[in-house]
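step 3/5: co-fold with PBG
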Amino acid sequence: MIQAMDKRPYNSIRMRRLRRGDLLRDLVAQTTLSPANLVMPLFVRRGENIRRPIVSMPGQYQLSPDQALEDLAEMAGGGLRAYILFAVVDDRDKDETGSHAHDPDNAVCTTLRLARAAGINMLAITDLCFCEYTSHGHCGVLADPSGHPQSIRRQARSKSGQAGKLRATPAAPFPGVDNDSTLEHLARQAVLHARAGADIIAPSGMMDHATAAVRRALDAAGYHDRAILSYAVKYASGFYGPFREAAESPPRFGDRCDYQMDFRRGAAEAVREAMLDVQEGADIVMVKPGLPYLDVLRCVVDAVPVPCAAYQVSGEYAMFKAAANAGWLDEKSCVLEAMHAFRRAGASFIITYYATQIARWLRDL
Ligand code: PBG
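step 4/5: write tokens
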């Protein structure tokens, strides 16, 4: 009676109705996560029996190929289906052009061959870049290899020695990485990875037209069947810090701002980068870093007709670990929440240092 007399509009909507109990919540969940959606990164270096902890990435190690093989066997048993390899190169093997990247006995190629020989049933992805291999730590061949180190030294001297004074000559600008000669090196390295058994090649250096160069080289060598996962949208990010410790690959001077993207730009630039790589033959594109770039991820997913991956990078991993180890965050629930955020934003899969751990958590759920 009282209701009938109430003249206010009647609103029957109860948002909580679908949250009533696990069964109902599971029924209407729109985002799924399985170990098949995860890729585990591994850092490999030459040698035997090496398992060197990476300080800023607790739980992660530099591994020699034999140790990597042990981990891969365990991961496959845990339900993981893909891994991505990064090289850690001894200083004595580094040079200006990163020639060790072309050595078929380097750690990446050795690990690929071992995994194949052992019948590891996982997709092998290789990071394709030069920063791990070059003595200067940049992602390719320098435009002016002789000029730059001097100009940096000049810069340093004028900063400390002539403080307050006007500089007579401004320091030469960073000559940068030479795009097109780097492409030739990338193409060669890609074919080497394919020959050693890589299923997916992932160019990560942000050189223009790297995807086209790699596709052309793979096809010319008969590897039409190997896919390209392009790091199409990769920002110049502080979140790569721990990776650079892990891979011993920080730039020795300058930074990567003249090839990696500027985070102050908008999503349109990201979409353009991704579209270009699709036109050049990328089978999958990627957005990197992860959580701070979910807006970009969503735009790219909506714009491109190929699967899109997300990379939860080293700094993101380090933040979760630090907070968890301090007892400030519940690691499992926060990491799983982040993974679902990537999936909700449209990522087909996520590269994450948590992959092994997540596979375990999902098994125990
Ligand atoms: C190589 C490369 C980097 C990362 C992936 N591939 C380093 C960089 O660009 O400086 C970073 C990954 C991470 O931080 O987890 N170019």
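step 5/5: annotate
Residues 127, 129, 131, 139, 204-205, 240, 243-244, 256, 313-314 surround PBG (CB under 6 Å).
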